[in-house]
Amino acid sequence: MHAQDKLAFLLSLVPYLMDHDRVSVADAAAHFGVPPEQIRQAVRLIAVSGVPGETTQYQHDDLFDIDWDAFEQDDEIAITHLVAIDESPRFSAREAAALIAGLQYLSGLPEQADRDVVGSLMAKLSRGASAAPSEVAVGSGDLDEALATIRRSVATARSLAFDYLNARGERERRTVDPLRVESLDADWYVRAWDHGRQAVRTFRLDRMSGLDVTDEPASAEGRDVVLPETLFQASPDDLSVELELSEAALPLVDDWIGGSERRRVDPDRVRVTVRLAHYGALTRLVAGLAGLATVVGPPDARATVERWAGDALANYATGGGSPSPATGPAR
Length: 331
Known about the structure:
Layout: H1 3-19, E1 23-24, H2 25-32, H3 36-46, E2 65-66, H4 68-74, E3 76-77, E4 79-81, H5 93-107, H6 115-128, H7 144-156, E5 158-165, E6 171-184, E7 187-194, E8 199-204, E9 208-217, H8 220-224, E10 239-246, H9 254-257, E11 263-266, E12 269-276, H10 279-287, E13 293-297, H11 299-317
Antiparallel strand pairs: 1-3, 2-4, 5-6, 5-9, 6-7, 7-8, 10-12, 10-13, 11-12
Pfam family, one: HTH_PafC
Protein name: WYL domain-containing protein
Domain WYL: 145-212
C-alpha cells in the first residue's frame, strides 16, 4: 500500500474507532473490506502517531494510545487517548437535539425524497454531540393526511384536485401540480402550477379540502417552472399598504416587502410598503406583529385593521376571545 493510501486509510480508521468504544479486529476488517492483519498494522501505526507539543518533541500525552491488553490478548481495539481530534468543536446536546428536530420536520415534506440521507445525518448528529441529545419528536398535526396526499401526488407525478375556500367564502374546485410545500410561522402553504390559471399559485393547506390525486399526468408547464425564493409574489392587482415598524421586525415581513424602499423614520423605526392580495391578509399580518407595526395608509387599510381590533376587544369583553384574522385566496 502506498504512503498516500495508508494515510487515507488511517484518516478513515480513526473516526471509525472513535465512533466505536471497543471493536474487534475482525469487525473492523469486515467494515473496511481489508485483511485483519492490515487493521493490526494500522492500529500499531496509530499508537505511535500524534502531534508534537510546544517543545517540538513527542511526549506521552502527544501520542495516541490504545488498550494494549485488549489488543494483544483479545484482538480488540479501544483507543484510550486521543490527540488533537478530540479537541475539534462539537455540537452540544441541546444543539444536536434542535438540529435533529429540524431534520425530522424536513423529512416530512413532500419534496424531500431522500429520507435515508436525512436519517443517516440525524444518526451522525447523535453520535457526534458532546453528550447524548434529548430524544425529540416532531408531533403530527391535523394536516398530516393532506400532506400525505400531496406527497403521493409529487411521487407519482400526477395532478392534485381539491376544493379551495377563498377569502369571499366561495368554494372552488382546483386542479394543480404541487411544486413545493412550505411553512410560515404555524401555517402551511402549497406552491403549485394551477391548470385553470396557467400560472403558479400559493394555497393554504387549512383552506384545502377533498384532496384527491387524479389520473392526469403533471403538465409540462408545471415541471419546467422555476419557483422564486420568496413565498408570496407581487401581482399587478395587489394592494399597497404602508407600514411603520421596528427595524428588528423587518425580517418578519421580508416576503411581503419585496423590493420596496425602506425609509427610516427615527433611529429605531422604518417605513415600508407591503403588497397584499386583500385587506384580510393585512389583518393577519398585523396580528402576527402585535406591538411592532403601525398601519400608516391608505385610509381603507387603517379602517380595516381598526374594525378587526374593535371586534377583538368586543369579543374579549363578552368572553369570546379574539376573532381569527381573515385569510386570503391563493395568489
